[in-house]
């Protein structure tokens, strides 16, 4: 199983999924971390010098990020838009919004079954 965690520094969990500089990809085998890699976020238009306007229809496609993370079973961030939250779930990728601030703590919580999803913390735009 693979878990993608939005992160700007490979240690802390990013506040916004699409604006993160990249994703820690952790591979779990029998509840243990087998490996961790980092994928730079080159597949969204959200990371444009740190800005992203949410005015208007927000009609861009999430196809790039869905394709880039299609080998993940789960993605975790501290925040994300409702549309990508739902698009990930529609692609059979469990999307979770957590209050946990570090990658390692979130992995421990996920493996132990105590990671709480907070979809109400997502933004609607």
Structural account:
This protein has a 5-stranded mixed sheet. 20% of the residues lie in helices and 25% in strands. It contains 3 helices and 5 strands, in the order βββαβαβα. The chain is α/β, with parallel strands linked by helices and 125 residues long.
Level-2 CATH architecture = 2-Layer Sandwich
CATH class: Alpha Beta
Distance between the termini: 31 Å
The biggest sheet, with number of strands, parallel, antiparallel or mixed sense and barrel status, is: 5 strands, mixed
Topology as a string of helices (H) and strands (E): EEEHEHEH
What is the CA-based Rg, rounded? 14 Å
Mean pLDDT: 86
The structure class reads: alpha/beta
Please tally the β strands and state the result.
Answer: 5
Write a concise synopsis of the structure shown.
The protein has helices at residues 63-68, 82-90, 103-112, and strands spanning 2-7, 22-29, 32-40, 74-77, 94-97. By secondary structure, it is of the alpha/beta class.
List keywords for this structure.
125 residues; 3 helices; alpha/beta; 5-stranded mixed β-sheet; Nucleotidyltransferase, domain 5
């Amino acid at each position: 199983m693979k878990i993608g965690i939005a992160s700007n520094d490979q240690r802390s969990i990013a506040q916004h999924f699409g604006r993160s500089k990249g994703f820690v990809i952790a591979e779990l085998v029998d509840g243990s971390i087998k490996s961790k890699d980092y994928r730079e976020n080159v597949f969204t238009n959200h990371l444009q010098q740190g800005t992203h306007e949410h005015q208007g229809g927000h009609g861009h496609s999430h196809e790039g990020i869905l394709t880039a993370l299609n080998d993940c079973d789960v993605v975790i961030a501290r925040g994300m838009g409702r549309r990508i939250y739902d698009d990930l779930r529609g692609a059979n990728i469990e999307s979770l919004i957590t209050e946990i601030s570090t990658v390692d703590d979130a992995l421990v919580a996920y493996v132990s079954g105590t990671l709480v999803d907070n979809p109400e913390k997502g933004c609607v735009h």
